Amino acid sequence: MIDSQARQRLIRAAQAVLAANDLGNATRPAPRVYPHQWNWDSALIAIGISHYDQPRAQTEIRSLLKGQWRNGMMPHIIFNPEAGDYHPGPDYWGTAGRTDAPVDVQTSGITQPPILAYAVLQVYRNATDKKQAAAFLAETYPALVNYARYFREQRGAEKDGLAHIIHPWESGLDNSPRWDLPLSRIKIGWQPEYQRVDTNALDGNQRPTNEEYDYYSYLVEFIRKYNYDEGELRELCPFLVQPVLFNSIFCLSLQALIEIGKIIGEPTSELAAWEAKSREAINTRLWDKQNQTYGDFDLRAGELYNTATPMVCSPLLAGIPSQQRANRLIEFLTDPNLYWPQPGYPLPTVAMNDTNFNPDKYWRGPVWIIINWLLILGLKSHGREALAEKLTEKTLELISENGFYEYFNPFTGAGLGAQQFSWTASLGIDLVKKSVLISII
Length: 441
Ligand code: 2M8
Fold this sequence. Notes:
Elements: H1 4-20, E1 37-38, H2 39-49, H3 54-65, E2 77-78, H4 90-93, H5 116-125, H6 130-153, H7 157-160, H8 168-171, H9 180-184, H10 198-201, H11 210-225, H12 230-236, E3 241-242, H13 244-264, H14 269-284, E4 287-288, E5 293-294, E6 296-298, E7 303-305, H15 323-333, H16 369-381, H17 385-402, E8 407-408, E9 415-416, H18 422-434, H19 436-440
Antiparallel strand pairs: 1-2, 3-6, 4-5, 6-7, 8-9
Residues 29, 34, 38, 40-41, 76, 169, 172, 174 line the site of (2R)-3-hydroxy-2-(alpha-D-mannopyranosyloxy)propanoic acid.
């Protein structure tokens, strides 16, 4: 149990991490390994910052929106012109001059989990000057709706209710075993030409393999070859998956957009229809009867498949499952053989009894604060406040005892990957602020 002094210390230290990673109008995820601005990182960073610096949180969002493409796409990276040491950089993406790409900033050409609209709503909720904050909502709303419309029109949500991704990096979960099956079906057409730099700064045993990087780089080259043309990529991209976590986050952001629309007096019936369609599709097309959890749909193979990771419970975060399904999912999450090690720290990103589980390797087992934070939200959405508080408590303990790492060993708590990681800091702040305990101290 971490007491109120430890919580205050955590907030101060987290603010120092965010200040050190501040690039002016944007925040990098970590000093050396991630020197640019990332899409969902920045959205989550803005939530943390909005608890103590509303103008800076709004600036974070505005700088992210500068990267938006004309078709509504929010790129996964906006490049920092001062930083060079990252693969793949702007030249490898080669998006400059593409018809849809912005002219004054350089970006990648794929997106990331669309948590942005939810983040904007949280920034508003944390504001004390609600009039100014509502003006910020009105300012950003059209861009946020365009981003949602992009998933409807370009990524299949209009047709299926579900958005597809064209690269594992779009999932945010890079080398999660969730992509092993669809990647294994891809025949690499040529040897991609690239140089990894991540393993210069970090232990290679904690990072994806070279084979995985071959797939990632090949897919970037493939997407670039087809000129970022969404229609062509829908037809031809060898990786085309409708992931459950991504779509649950899409639904959450649609719910947030509806709420924002109501606050600023915009009609919301169209958004409500989009949200209902996506929710329904998650509950039907992504429901895996056999495992009694949610899976991902591989559009290339035309099948639903599943992997033992806590993401199988992700629809909880947008209140999507029935109470009966939710109860079953929560039993999985709290099972000490799967996701709640005792002793240790919940929630490992792969089930501990699964052959893919590796407690130290990137998205293949370590605890990630983002996943805990999303599932804490899910527990609260389903009325499980006490359990949400328990998970909050364990997560804060993990950070305050081990530091603001990118990910953590679920048994020992040892920090892994990048140090001084921004979303660990910002979500740490958010967890302290929302914790039931803090409000009674
Ligand atoms: C990781 O992804 C990037 C590629 O986008 C990488 O491996 O270099 C993921 O953890 C992703 O979710 C995250 O947004 C990004 C920056 O923190 O790093």
